[in-house]
C-alpha cells in the first residue's frame, strides 16, 4: 500500500514519533488551517449512523422499547368493544330504571373501528343494536318509539365507524407497501460490515434515530484493498431522505477511490469533488447543500500502525490493554462540502496499532450524548472498564450504556465501528460472501 503524505506518527500509550506535516506550509496556509479548524468547531451538530448493533450483521429495525406494551395495547383495543357490550347492559340491569347505561352501547362500534376491520365493526354494531332491543323489551318500554330512536343512532354510528375502519385499513396497506420500498432502498445504501477483513476484525453498532428507520445520516464502509484495509465512517448534516442521498453519494465515491487512491488525502479529495460535481448537476436537490464529517482510516498489512484523516469528525479512541486514549489529531480538516474556502492540504496522523489493539470509531451520537445534568458521555472511562470484554460484546454494551446514560435515551443516530487488530499470522482473506458485502 502506498504511504500517505503529510504523516504524523503518534502513539496512544508510549512511543511517539512525529513529523511536522505542516512544517513547510506558508503563513497563508497556516491562516487557512486556523480558519478551517475554527469552521469545523462551529459546525452544527450533524445527524448520526447506519446498521444494527452487534457483530456486523445485517441491519434490522431499531426497536425503541419492548414489544409487549404495544402488543398489550393492541389486544386491549380489540377487547374494548366487547367490554362495553358486556359492561353497559350489566350496569343498566343492576341500577335504577332511570339510569340508562344502555346509551353507552353507541361507543362499541366506534371503538371497534380502531382495531377491527369493516366487517368486524359492522358485527359489533349489530350486537349493540340487538342488546339495545333486548334491554328495551326488558324494561317494558314501548318498543317502537324507544327502539326507533336508539337503533337509528346506533345504525348511523356503526355505518360511519365501518367506513372509517375501511379507510384505515387501506392506509395501513399503502403505508406497509411504502415502508417495504423504503426499507429496500435503505438497505441498498448501507450493507452490513464483514466480521473480518484482512488482518482486522470489525464489530458494528448502528441505531437510526427515526422510529422504524434502517438508515439515517450516518454511513460507513470497510474495504480490503491491496496492502491493507481502508475504512470510512461519516455523518451527514441533518436527517431524512436528503441525508441518506448525500450518504449514498459519498459511499459510492469511497468505493471507487479506496482501491486506486495512493493515500487517504487523495480519497478525501475525491469525496469533496464528488459532492461538488453533484451540486453542479443537481442544484435543486437538498442533498447538494449538505456537508458531512468523515473519518478515514488505513490499516496496512505490513506495519503495526493505523493512518487517520479527519474531515471535521471526532477522533477515535485507541485501546492497548487497559490503556485507553483518544487520538490527538494534529490538524483536522473541515467537513466535506462545507462552504468554506480552504487551501491547506489534508493531514494524515499515524498511530501505533499493534496486534491485539482496538480502535473505536464513532459518530457524534456517541460523543455528544449527555445525561440530565448536561455531562458528556465518558467514553474513555467506559472503554477502560470494558478492556477485558470480548470484542463481540462491546457494541451491545455501548448501546445499552448510552441508552441508560442519555437524558432521552438514544435520541440521535448512533454509529460505532470497533476495529480489532489481529495477532501476527492471523490475517485471512475475506470470504466470497464477505467480499461482496464489503464492496
Write a brief caption for the model.
This protein is of the alpha+beta class and 439 residues long. It has helices at residues 27-41, 67-94, 107-115, 118-139, 143-189, 241-260, 264-281, 364-367, 379-385, 394-405, 432-438; strands at residues 7-10, 196-197, 200-207, 218-225, 228-236, 292-300, 305-311, 317-320, 323-326, 348-352, 358-362, 414-421.
Structural topology:
Elements: E1 7-10, H1 27-41, H2 67-94, H3 107-115, H4 118-139, H5 143-189, E2 196-197, E3 200-207, E4 218-225, E5 228-236, H6 241-260, H7 264-281, E6 292-300, E7 305-311, E8 317-320, E9 323-326, E10 348-352, E11 358-362, H8 364-367, H9 379-385, H10 394-405, E12 414-421, H11 432-438
Parallel strand pairs: 1-10
Antiparallel strand pairs: 2-3, 3-12, 4-5, 5-6, 6-7, 7-10, 8-9, 8-11, 11-12
Topology pattern, helix = H, strand = E? EHHHHHEEEEHHEEEEEEHHHEH
- The tally of beta strands, per DSSP, is 12
Q: Helical stretch count?
A: 11
Radius of gyration: 30 Å
What ranges have pLDDT less than 50 throughout 5 or more consecutive residues? 2-6, 9-66, 428-439
The structure class reads alpha+beta
Q: Provide the spatial order of strands within the biggest beta sheet.
A: 1-10-7-6-5-4
Let me know the average pLDDT: 79
Helical residues, percent: 40-55%
Range of strand content: 15-25%
Distance between the termini: 18 Å
Largest sheet features: 6 strands, mixed
The geometry reads as: elongated
